[in-house]
Batch of 4 targets.
Target 1
Amino acid sequence: MAIELIGGRLDSVSTGRIVSDVLQWLIFEPDAIEHMRAQTPTRRDWIAVLDGEKVGVGTCGVPVGMEASSAALSMLFVLRPARHQGAGGLLYRQVSDHARTLGRSTLQMFSVEDDPDTAGFAARHGFTVVGRVRGLRLPLDRCPRPDTEPPTGVAITTLAQRPDLAPGVWEVACEAFAEIPHGGDALQAGTYEQFAATRLAGPGYIPEATFAAVQGEQVVGYAQLGWMSRLAGIADHEMIAVRRDWRGRGIAQALKAAQISWAIDNGLTELRAGNDERNAAARAVNARFPYMPMPDYLRLRGSTAPG
């Protein structure tokens, strides 16, 4: 049995295949991986090769919004038939070495609750669950088109129609991100330039499905769909955020309805969503629509492997 690690930067196809196979309900397409990599200069990728077959992926870096964190963000996934043969341990040591070069002694990873090896990995290496994301899916073939309207005086438009509203969307994100329950450190939107490059650009960005709730010329909330798989017609609810002094007026529900209506009108097959279990407000909005549960996603934190 021969195990080796090779650089993953030039093989996004294999990276996407392995990650998507392990996570099952999340689809990582090669162009999306390349965009994420381009926006995270500190990120490095490795692929584990077992007896000539590419069976595992390890990544590590500090993305926008985590600069102040003590942790590096890492993915570590091995195909189920290839586990317990050393590939995962080799990847863990490699991403740990890179994290230390970034001045980090902690790794933040994620997995799915129904993965049979998550608990074992956590127990062996001292990782703990710091966040639990309730996964949801909304098949659209029989989904009724919602008719929820925004409150009086608020209009809903898109960044395709009003690209000049992008700075206002960023302002909402700056206020809301830090208040969203999230395992580990608080979310940060970054500078406007960083936000625009990571969230308002790239292969997953859909300006026609990036909605802004506007009162006069002020953006008071926004909601964004992003492609998870354009080929399969699946999009992800990437974010819904409302300014603090505009919450509780039905804006989030109207934005969610606009997303679902757009997806139905444009022939998508399914929407996916996920919210931290502590995010009661977002989960209450989702409860008003016919979503179906998926397995939970777990955010895990633990120490780097001994160097």
Note: The first helix runs from residue 12 to 23.
Target 2
Amino acid sequence: MKSAAQDRRTRKAKYAAQQEREAKRTSGRARQRRKGTPSRRRYWGWAVIVLVGVLLVIGIVVFVQSQAPVGDLQGIVTYSNLSRNHVNTKVTYPQNPPVGGAHSSVWQNCGIYSQPVANENGVHSLEHGAVWITYQPSLDASSVEQLRSLVRGHDHALLSPYPGLPSPVVISAWGMQLQVNSASDPRLAQFVSKYENGSQTPEPGALCSGGLGTPDEH
């Protein structure tokens, strides 16, 4: 039979072995955690970099769009060094319809006309900040009504038929012109928004009433 002392030594040895095994398991788990940590850090690091990159691209796109002027419309042709002299004779203009140049001392009252108006009076209206929408006389009634809706309620907009236009619809401001093939072209409304009394106006604040002509409607 084992003595009490031997029994105690045996239990101590088993306990020590158990403690040693537990210490090894704990140490192994710690090493595994340490090995996994850099991998997780790299994963989250790349995730943050990608997120920052996406946000940066979105920010750049939004900024560029916000800086683009409303009037930067494809197809606009600009003209400079236009005379502002008043004349009492007919003027031959290089543009069709004209966008500026020598003109009558009397402006065309803004509004909607069903008959052509004189170039010399229309140009004076442009000088006062008007936008002038002209259309081929053969344009269908529904398209003409679309153009009328663009002008209604605007005190510096002029609409009239114009024989011999280079396209179905032409919209002009002082030194600016855009030709379109359809009255539903969204650039027409954008042009009105940008250039009616816009920064190109030689005489900002000037009236477009009290001049020549009686519009069919305003």
Note: The two ends are 123 Å apart (CA to CA).
Target 3
Amino acid sequence: MPNRAVHDFLTVATSVIITPVTYSILSGIPEVSEWATVIAALVFVSHNVSGILFSPDLDMDTHIHKRWGIFYILWVPYQMVIPHRHFWSHGLILPPLLRLGYFFWMCLLMLYVVETIAAYFGLAVPNLQQSVTRLVLTFVMAHPYECVTIAAGFVSGAAVHSIADWLVSGGTKLVRSVFVPPQRGTPKSATTPGSVSSRWLFDPFSSESPRHV
């Protein structure tokens, strides 16, 4: 597997490529050209936040957890429930959005705990859960395109990580077996020993997963 530093580099490098491409495409569309800068900036930020803070390796990598500081505790249940290097952590589309949703609900749970403790000691605390939920829902309804952009950035940031894992753990061998002619006397095969199919990137029921090589 690529190490943490390589994954971080890939995340930042791809964001540097994706951002100007996004801006260039949108600036050429009259209906959205005035929003091109904002959308490109959202793509850049969400892509990097997804790949660096909401990394697929939150299922096991303690170094990623350390980036959260004291809020690492929010990810302990996630680490206990999500299978190690599986579709639910490294899948391409649904898992990064699930991590975002998980984080939102854990924040609400944390606010509930704070309110409960404050009430136990007789302290008056506003209903923070409802306030935060209302704020988020209002933002989503008022800025749907921006929210879609953020979601797309989260997906792309995690996808860079997962695809890199797949390539290193056997995908390159699969690609070579398809596109590189076999030596004389050696039958060409769609897969080679040690290769890992990409099924685990899309199928939650797949028993395959990326592995260390």
Note: The first helix runs from residue 4 to 27.
Target 4
Amino acid sequence: MKLGFIGAGEMGGAIIRGLLTQGCPKEDIIASVHTPQSAERIQKELGIEAVTDNRRVIVEAGWLFIAVKPAQVESVLKEIAASGVPAKPLICMALGWTVEKIQRVLPAWPVIRIMPNTPLAAGEGVTLFHFAPETPKRARREVMGLFDGMGKTFEISLSVFDAATALSGSGPAFVYYFIDALASAAAAQGLPQDEAVKLAVQTVIGAAKMVSRENLPPAELAQKVATPGGCTAAGMDVLAASDVKAVIARTLAATAKKAEEYSK
């Protein structure tokens, strides 16, 4: 079965690379892009067929991936509708494009809304899924299986999809910010900046693996590290006094609100 990508930018390209890493044959992937130069570059870098004609992808692909910017989705959907091809699984990753909005243009199509995040490129991504009722169970399993090799997959109900997007879709940026803050604070204490970054990165990786392995609430793990009267407890006292949790809550709320606005 041929997988067709309309758009192969940062996220679309990351997904294609992930599929190739899993062993998907190069000849089973086709992508359409804006310019001949982009098509040539993608063919050289990834070895897949890249064209500038969306219609070729629309007609030839068994599954269609919409990987363009949100503002471009409507014109792509109209192009698909005008092509007259029969309904096929359509996977859209554009922010704000719900199953319902897509089906206004392509009624009864088996639409699959996804929200991947950038760590997918490192094989540690999170991909959220929401399925149209018309999407067969087999197609649901198969498409989630494609992304299982690039991290973790979660089926999310529509009512909380924007909140989940704020957490896993935007969350990597917040984690990067925290890593930068940790490293900068350590550098201010005299640690070389490059070494501080390496220590901060490994600390976050290790802590995340501990949460995953120990199956305990993160707050409980924090308490186990923070011996009363010790240096970790002193730092935790500063975090509590600064009400960091409230700041994070406002951060996620603002992110989810913006995601919701895109969905209207």
Note: The chain has a mean pLDDT of 96.
